[in-house]
Automatic annotation (TrEMBL):
Family annotation (Pfam families): TENA_THI-4
Protein name: Aminopyrimidine aminohydrolase
Record has Membrane as a keyword: no
SUPFAM superfamilies to which the protein is assigned, alphabetical: Heme oxygenase-like
InterPro entries: Haem_Oase-like_multi-hlx (IPR016084), Thiaminase-2/PQQC (IPR004305), Thiamine_Salvage_TenA (IPR050967)
Source organism phylogeny: Bacteria, Bacillati, Bacillota, Clostridia, Eubacteriales
Recorded family membership: Belongs to the TenA family.
Amino acid sequence: MSKLSEKLYERAKPLWDKESENYFVSAMAEGTLDEEKYRAYMLQDHCYLIDYIGILEFMREQAEDAEVANFLKKAADSTRFEKDTVHVPNMKVLGITDEEISSTEKAPDSEEYLTYMMDKAKESLIYGITALLQCSWSYAYIARKVADRYGEKLESSPYTDWFSAYTSEEYSEANQRWIDILDRVAKDISHAEEEKLCEIFEKCAHYETRFWNIFISAKHEEK
């Protein structure tokens, strides 16, 4: 019998493959992405991470399984650490000020995505775990696929650190722990519930596409 994670992967892979070809990540790999687009992405991603951490903490408070609660705590702590020690310093390197950071509001598509994930987390812990996993897993998949496609050429890109972060062994191991947790808690669910989780995962993959498209101009979207 297939694991839930295998079925989730099958549903999302076509969308992830398409995203690995989008203008934004391709331009990052080529080193041709306009810095203003990257600044906009970093500001929106900062807003996203704050709410993402909040959802993880909410789920931890709801978790009755000690292993799941411990995993969610570690996930929230590590995401917060990354935000504060890597993401924010990188924003400062780009010249983004504290005022810009504090005054930036979430884009409508990002707000809708985060609201959906929180709603799923409130509905069921396993729904929330599934929704948030899609983000983590998609970044690992897309970064690896693009890095493999560009090979050594990626090393000369000013955005190479973005790919290094999401293809790192540490990130891959953390993502695998998430997958393993979900497979364990979903071990005895019904077929109907399994299909519901696949639908949530796929919907989040579509939301992820909309998030990337925030930073792509109409000119590039038409290509």
